[in-house]
């Protein structure tokens, strides 16, 4: 079977799956009465299954059907999370907004909307949502790192350092947090602090290529070229991508933080759990 035929077959299978879901929902709706609670639950379960398999379009379709039948904060958050995973950040913001409108203490939706605002580089809005999450559920290492990312976006580097200090107090064994703090120190010209943080990250993870690479950049800026070369060689040994320039990471570069897929190195992963 050719590639084109396989694509057509896959599309037909997806359409058939959706059609079967719609028929199942219609049957349940007729048997359950006007409320259609059973149909909504089935659509939600189908959405959960699609989401778990990474079939985000189908998950969004199923959650949307469930929402039309029985809207809830949980369903809006689930669909918002699917949009967030898919990179449709404006739509995810809208759904998380609906969730907190229905339930103002829905802490996870504040966190996820804050993450979406980070992706949109709306840093003040992200901080407001992280503050709401903090008031409802207290601080975590990941929340502190998200806050640091927002402060970095606003060029409020002293506040970013304070947020990362707290993150390290909450979890002193996370090497990437030290590297992110090293980047902020380097950006502010605090070379000794940057080197110390990179060295601490290497102690925690001796094969952490990003820590060697960041330290090499700072050492180069200080004129310590041989030490920098040693660190670059170690970075390449642990991540060959550095040798070809495919891994764009480091401390200070043209007064701008190096990023990977839009995220500053060390940023906690997006919360993609559905509850």
Structure write-up:
It is a single chain. The protein contains 13 helices and four strands. The chain has 275 residues and is an all-alpha fold. It has a domain of 131 residues: Serine Threonine Protein Phosphatase 5, Tetratricopeptide repeat. A two-stranded antiparallel ribbon has the order 1-2. A hairpin with a 2-residue loop joins strand 1 and strand 2. Helix 4 packs antiparallel against helix 5, helix 5 runs antiparallel to helix 6 and helix 6 runs parallel beside helix 8. The N terminus is likely disordered.
What is the strand and helix layout of this fold?
Blueprint: H1 3-32, H2 37-52, H3 56-69, H4 73-86, H5 89-102, H6 107-119, H7 123-137, H8 141-153, H9 157-170, H10 175-187, H11 191-204, H12 209-221, H13 225-238, E1 252-253, E2 256-257, E3 259-260, E4 263-264
CATH architecture of the domain at 139-269: Alpha Horseshoe
Helix content: over 70%
Question: How is the CATH topology of the domain at 139-269 named?
Answer: Serine Threonine Protein Phosphatase 5, Tetratricopeptide repeat
Number of helices: 13
Strand proportion = under 5%
What general form does the structure show? elongated
On the 0-100 scale, what is the average pLDDT? Answer: 83
Unreliable stretches covering 5 or more consecutive residues = 3-9, 30-34, 246-268
CATH class of the domain at 139-269: Mainly Alpha
Task: Name the structural class.
Answer: mainly alpha
User: Rg, please?
Assistant: 23 Å
Q: Which strand order spans the largest sheet, edge to edge or round the barrel? A: 1-2
Beta strands, count = 4
Distance between the termini: 40 Å
Along the chain, the helix and strand elements come as HHHHHHHHHHHHHEEEE
CATH superfamily of the domain at 139-269: Tetratricopeptide repeat domain
């Amino acid at each position: 079977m050719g590639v084109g035929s396989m694509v057509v077959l896959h599309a037909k299978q997806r359409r058939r799956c959706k059609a079967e879901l719609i028929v199942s929902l219609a049957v349940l709706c007729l048997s359950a009465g006007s409320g259609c609670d059973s149909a909504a639950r089935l659509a939600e379960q189908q959405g959960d299954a699609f989401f778990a398999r990474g079939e985000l379009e189908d998950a969004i379709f199923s959650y949307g059907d469930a929402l039309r039948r029985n809207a809830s904060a949980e369903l809006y958050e689930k669909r918002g999370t699917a949009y967030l995973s898919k990179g449709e950040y404006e739509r995810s913001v809208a759904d998380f907004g609906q969730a907190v409108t229905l339930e103002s203490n829905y802490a996870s939706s504040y966190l996820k909307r804050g993450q979406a605002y980070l992706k949109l580089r709306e840093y003040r809005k992200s901080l407001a949502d992280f503050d709401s999450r903090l008031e409802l559920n207290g601080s975590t290492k990941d929340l502190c790192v998200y806050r640091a990312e927002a402060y970095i976006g606003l060029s409020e580097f002293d506040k970013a350092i304070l947020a990362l200090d707290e993150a390290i107090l909450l979890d002193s064994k996370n090497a990437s947090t030290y590297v992110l703090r090293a980047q902020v120190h380097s950006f502010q010209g605090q070379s000794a602090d940057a080197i110390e943080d990179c060295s601490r990250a290497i102690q925690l993870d001796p094969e952490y290529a990003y820590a060697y690479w960041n330290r090499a950049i700072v050492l180069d800026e200080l004129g310590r070229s041989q030490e920098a070369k040693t660190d670059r060689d170690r970075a390449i040994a642990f991540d060959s991508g550095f040798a070809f320039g495919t891994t764009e990471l480091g401390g200070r570069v043209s007064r701008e933080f190096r990023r990977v897929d839009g995220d500053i190195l060390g940023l906690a992963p997006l919360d993609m759990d559905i509850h």
